[in-house]
Write a structure and sequence with these properties.
6-stranded mixed beta sheet, alpha/beta, two-stranded antiparallel ribbon, 176 residues
Length: 176
């Protein structure tokens, strides 16, 4: 049966949060703040938090630095996953992926459909593994961030979640 096994010990994950937006500041950013609050409330470590404008190179640079940092286990981005010309997060980050986590997008769309219906089609939520760093790209709305964290990431980044979780894979991610 799926769920949290309280007999196991919790292992905090070091997570960096990147918000991709031309309009938000730290004071007005609700999606990044929501992620920061939820991940720390869950017992994880907020490794870093930044906001960059919708610029492919700036998005790449921020995430590339975190991928190279052994103190960052996972990156969650918010924004830039839509269909407009300014939405560049997916194009900026998927070249870093050694492996695409196809199931993340599929499950995100199932969860999102329950909240926003067919509007989920306008999102290109994606996830992948870049070296030994998990990268999850969520849409920029606070609702989408809540869906992604509350229904998926909260569990997959919890070492006590059964039958399996991504945390237990971390020691083996660089195997050859």
């Amino acid at each position: 049966m799926a769920g949290i096994d309280d007999s196991l010990s919790f292992k905090p994950v070091r997570i960096a949060v990147l918000v991709v937006s031309d309009t938000r500041t730290m004071e007005t950013d609700t999606s990044g703040q929501t992620l920061a609050e939820r991940l720390t409330e869950a017992g994880h470590v907020l490794a870093d938090r930044k906001i960059v404008i919708d610029d492919r190179q700036l998005v790449r640079q921020a995430v590339q630095n975190w991928i190279a940092d052994p103190q960052v286990d996972a990156v969650i981005t918010s924004g830039g996953t839509g269909l407009t010309g300014r939405d560049v997060t997916v194009e900026a980050l998927t070249p870093f992926f050694d492996k695409v986590i196809d199931g993340f997008s599929a499950v995100f769309h199932q969860v999102s459909f329950q909240t926003v219906g067919l509007s989920t089609l306008q999102s290109r939520a994606v996830a992948g593994l870049a070296g030994s760093t998990f990268v999850f790209c969520l849409p920029g709305s606070t609702g989408a961030v809540k869906d992604g964290w509350d229904q998926i990431l909260k569990y997959q980044l919890d070492s006590r979640y059964r039958p399996c979780n991504m945390v237990e894979l971390m020691p083996r991610l660089t195997e050859v």
